[in-house]
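Report of the visiting student (M.T.), summer placement. My assignment was to run the structure pipeline on a short list of targets and document each run. The first record concerns Serine/threonine-protein kinase 17B-like.
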Amino acid sequence: MSRKRSESKSSQPGLLTEIQTPIRTDGLDSHYHITSDELGRGKFAVVKKCVEKSTGKEYAAKFLKKRRRGRDCRVEIVHEVAVLESARWNSRVVNLHEVFETEHEIVLVLEYAAGGEIFDHCASEEALTERQITRLLRQTLEGVHLLHQNNLVHLDLKPQNILLTSLSPLGDIKIVDFGLSRRLGAGSELREITGTPEYVAPEILNYEPITTATDMWSVGVIAYMLVTGESPFAGNDKQETYLNVSQVNVEYCKEAFAGVSELAVDFIRKLLVKSAEDRPSAADCLSHPWLWQGAWGSDSDPPLSQPPRERSAGKWGPPIPLGNPEDKENILEESPSLPKRFRFDSLAGESVL
Ligand code: ADP
Ligand code: MG
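After the run finished, the structure tokens were exported:
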């Protein structure tokens, strides 16, 4: 009825092969009503809303083709399952409910993120407020931080792969799509040409080693898009986009950043740097004052997350009351319990607009 754990070894670096979830072969249709509501579609996957017959609960079923371009890709799908399993404790990652297999497909039954992609908010006329954006980014960084602590890199972070639990009120984020993710370490160095041109870091294009900093570049691109509604490196064609990325050809022009705080630009600027070693980590980012500006106070929602007390330990400390959140000096000097910053302590004095 179901197949368990006996997955073949993979020769590809960074792929996980061990899974705990039983792969059911007793028919998705007998347990779920698959609706015609298509939630999304990629090259090799289609995602549909479904309802579990026994509970009436809604889920998202991701149908993955086992053969792609004439090649058997079951190992890669098993890896995606394994990564979702290992991130089960990470509440910012979508939960995996069940797995089914048919002759040509493997179907991941996932927690349903009813609020859609944060991409819709980048492209929308009705822009999010800076406070909403920083809340979503804090949550994204929490998720990424936990993945990185586990030596996992996502490698396809983009606004289409960051979903929301609800739209109105604006819910919490869920990171999806671990198809390109990899485990770091484990002997061999990881270099791959992977990802989506607009969002990939220069080291990917240069076939240089992949590290957790590769994801941090993408976080910078996502932050830029949420704030401005524009894609910072998108060119007229792929070639132009690649060139823009590898030359870090990014504009912080007045029009796009009108009304955006200087701290936001500081945050983005520090992530979109060519040298991967110079990019702040997810934990570093979580201590950037922009993300906590106006995060609490009389007129704001209580923060869902809190800054790490110690950056490296990744512990989330209690909220630190800010004096005047607009006043950077106050934040840095009058909050002794704020973690020490190394990359963010020199807030750009120059006007960045
Ligand atoms: P692909 O590998 O094809 O990009 P994804 O896992 O990113 O597949 O899914 C494609 C799209 O389907 C996502 O961008 C999103 O719009 C939608 N989607 C994926 N998972 C869910 C989910 N759990 N809940 C709601 N929508 C989802
Ligand atoms: Mg995707």
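The pocket of magnesium ion (ligand 2) is lined by residues 42, 160-161, 177 (CB under 6 Å). The first helix runs from residue 28 to 31. I thank the supervising group for their guidance throughout the placement.
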